[in-house]
Amino acid sequence: MSDQTYTISELAKEFGVTTRTMRFYEEKGLISPRREGQKRVYSSADRVRIKLILRGKRIGMSLAECVEVIDMYDPGHNNADQLHSLINTVQNRRQLLEQQKQDIDEMLAGLAEVQNLCESALGDIEESHS
Amino acid sequence: MSDQTYTISELAKEFGVTTRTMRFYEEKGLISPRREGQKRVYSSADRVRIKLILRGKRIGMSLAECVEVIDMYDPGHNNADQLHSLINTVQNRRQLLEQQKQDIDEMLAGLAEVQNLCESALGDIEESHS
DNA sequence: CATGCCGTTTACGTTAACGTCAAGTAAGGT
DNA sequence: ACCTTACTTGACGTTAACGTAAACGGCATG
Fold first, then answer.
1. Which among A40, A114, B8, B102 could bridge A33 via Cys, Cβ 3.0 to 4.6 Å?
2. Which nucleotides of C are covered by protein (CB under 7 A)?
3. Phi and psi for B5 in degrees, rounded to 5?
4. Domain interval for residue B45
5. Is the CB atom of residue A9 positioned under 7 angstroms from any atom of strand C?
6. What Rg value do the Cα atoms of chain A yield, rounded?
7. Chain B residues with beta carbon closer than 8 angstroms to that of A122
8. How far is the CA of B61 from the CAs of A24, A36, A40, A50, in angstroms?
9. Which of the listed residues A63, A84, A116 is the one where a domain comes to its end?
10. In a shared domain, residues A59 and A79
11. Which residues contact A67 (CB under 8 A, 6 or more apart)?
């Protein structure tokens, strides 16, 4: 039962963030590690949450948005109304993500072209050296 | 020769931002509309730059990063050293974008699954009503 | 037992990206 | 002449997401 635990600096190091960041996320309610005395003890579930948070950040989401998305994963949505509303927010988010993918693809296409131009320009320079 | 021009509020409205934002971008050197007297007059080239900026923002780039990317598009890189260095930054950015695409795909997969669970849960509820 | 090293809390500082007035100008309508 | 509307600059305010520094506790090691 993956009952592994981590210290704050272990996880901070693993994910390339500072301990300040970890405490800040806790302060904002994004994670709630258990305590042993004073010290924070992170479970592998905590670790996953952090991973999800950072994934969200990489694609430009605010911490609030990260929580919003993460909260979609766990249950607590029993009745039909809640399910409908959840489906709705899920679909909205998917829509946004698709838009982002498109933006990324466009930018990638542009950059690929730039690179081609650069490389052929370099080729021309080589040629002129012969 | 698309020599169309725009006022600040026209473009602000078109892109769903405030005029304050437009002036802020100018203040930060992201755009440089010409003036007629006091008033800003935006060309279609300016319009494109704004479009690129906002596309960058949608995928979580800072304004500084937006400028960086946009600057890759226009020339001014004559010698071989500059070309090499440009190719390098282009490749780095492409790398980041690919990472982002992967993050998005993972998140999309998760959300799709959530939606499926929700819908089948809704199905069960319907069933129990018969 | 002093010295690091890791952890803690508290609190003030910082940067980006605007928001929000305030006060003024310039053109056009009635 | 007056009003409205769109534009201008200038300056202070705000929020998110941390950074940074101070001051303390615990423990292991030379």
1. A40
2. 6-11, 16-21, 25-27
3. -125, 165
4. 5-74
5. yes
6. 22
7. 80, 83-84, 87
8. 22, 39, 33, 21
9. A63
10. no
11. A29, A30
What does the pLDDT look like over B84-114, one tens digit per residue? Answer: 999 999 999 999 999 999 999 999 999 999 9
Q: Is B93 part of any domain?
A: no
| Mean of per-residue pLDDT scores for chain A | 95
**CA-based nearest distance B51→chain A, Å:** 11
- Per-residue pLDDT at A74: 86
Q: Report the CATH number at residue A30.
A: 1.10.1660.10
Q: Which of B103, B15, B70, B49 is nearest to A110 (CA)?
A: B70
A37 pLDDT higher than 90: yes
Q: What are phi and psi of A17, to 5 degrees?
A: -125, 175
* Whether B1 contacts B37, CB under 8 Å: no
The predicted model gives A58-69 an average pLDDT of: 98
Instruction: Tell me how far apart the alpha carbons of residues B24 and B20 are, in angstroms, rounded to a whole number.
Output: 6
Average pLDDT of the segment spanning A103-122: 96
The C-alpha torsion from B85 through B30 and B63 to A64, rounded to 10°, is: -160
Name the closest nucleotide to A57, judged by C1' and CA: D17
Whether residue A69 is contained in a domain is answered as: no
Residue with tokens 């370099």: A122
